[in-house]
Design a protein that fits this description.
Length: 239
Amino acid sequence: MTPERAFRSIVILTGAGISAESGLGTFRDKDGLWTKYDLSEVATPEGFARNPVLVHDFYNARRRNLLEAQPNAAHAALAELERLWDGDFLLVTQNVDNLHERAGSRRLRHMHGELLKIRCDDCGYVTEWEHDLDLATTCPACGRSARLRPHVVWFGEMPLHMEEIHGALQSCDVFVSIGTSGQVYPAAGFVAEVRRAGRAHTVELNLDPSDGHSLFAERVYGPATEIVPDFVARLFAGA
Ligand code: OAD
């Protein structure tokens, strides 16, 4: 199916807000994770070097929480959009959860890594991991212990897949940002990058206006489980 409007190429950016109604906490809302934890202690390489046990505990709790969570109607609507869309499609998520793929999304890039993967700091081996991680866990590839870490991007580290993402942003003709506060770069700069390329329609779907809300041509505010399915339906109805 082709949308009525002349959109051939779509890039969607998601943040923690799309998973909020699945029971995963956001970072900067009233009860957000960064109101309870010091970001510099649990989400930086320096924090991990200082206190790896604290960092493992933080991500172990988040991993357990994720294993109990289910994708919601907003994840499902984006999977359906991908299935029906016959042009270029890329879903970029800042989320480390796997709710998009469990809802059926496939053309998906995790720019901040994946909570259900771990990586060895020594040999670089990356593997899927659903258990708690601690200092005694040995790397399945090189056998060393105390060198494994969550395969997530911490502050001060390079986000993943950026070349592909920048290419898609330059050439898309619709860019949709969902459930992100627009406070963390490089994702917070995507809407400006799309506008500089000069051709795309830009849409923000969020509970509250993000930091960069005025840069979006179209803005809809409400819970993701309502406004994302509505948006997808409108896109195909040409409204
Ligand atoms: P934030 O916690 O900064 O922002 C969440 C956004 O979701 C806010 O703008 C809320 O208004 C919105 N929101 C909350 N509930 C919602 C709902 N039910 N429906 C729709 N929107 C809702 O999360 P992010 O912007 O994703 O990075 O944060 C970006 C990055 O900062 C994260 O990837 C993480 C964090 O530190 C790293 O850890 C590297």
